[in-house]
Amino acid sequence: MKKKVLEALPQNCEPLIIHDNDPDGLCSSIIFKRYTGGKTRRLIGRANLSMEWYKRLNIEAASKTVILDIPEVEQEFLDTQNVPVWIDHHMPQKRHNVLYVNPRNYDPNIYVPTTTMAQDFVGTKETLWIAMIGSIADYHWPHFAEEFKSLYPDLCKRDTVQEALLHDPISELVKLFFFLLKGERQEVEQHIRDLHKIKSPYELLTQSSKEGERLWKRFKKRDEVFNQSYKDARSKNTRSKLLVYEYQPGKWSFTSYLSNMLSTTLKGKTIIIARRDNGVMKCSCRGPNVLEVLKEVLPKVGGKGGGHPTACGASVPEQEWESFKRLFKSRL
Hints:
Shape: globular
Mean pLDDT: 93
Low-confidence stretches: none
Radius of gyration: 20 Å
Largest sheet: 5 strands, parallel
């Protein structure tokens, strides 16, 4: 598969790189751009590439397009002549006219983030720290973890995602990549431009460049707000198998990362973090077999959702929220 990807995306081919709006999508795009050059665009909102996006992204002007970490792409979008590669790790889709790279085509239970594949396909020793951050951010311990630890022994000493996120300095970098995707569009685009210029994790940790200093300062503002929400959510913990935390974010939403950290610290517990948004409760869910429970409960309340077996997103009509919680808890 690597050979086919490199044939479709040779070095310095200057493609348009479209990626998901999370650390896995962002990190994989940084790795690919350092190999191929080109421009990057993040997909905001529902991760579905339709012909509407074809027009908005001005795909016709691109000589090649690579799609990274996007779960859904419409066939009409792929029928354009300049979309040679789509790399993803969500539920496999049946599409043609594209080199579709998804490990779950061969093993439905395998879990390999797009960042891990990007590093395997076009990464170098210089992008290894980016690959490690993107993989851990997607809750995956990559096969190159030992190589990373030998190069950056002060950043990671543990041997699991959970322990690294709780105790190692790399956890701060993972948070930074999550939090700097929060905010107004223009501000986030500036963050991404700055991140593309960062050559070493120490530029961020020690603020040794103007980009590193600017990014760290903005990250710390978000981190302060997150810590308040995290402390409040922890205070709601009981002996129940389920922790539901409802909050209304201000300037920045930390729903996904909040659920990640609570599931890391409260091992074995099922976590639902929810916020109200125009009559809908938008949820980030973590826990053993959470996807299986969601598939059973969501149709009964008119909700939608999906994701990975232990990490999912869901939307529930606000008027059905109490019913959803009751049904969900009864299935645990």
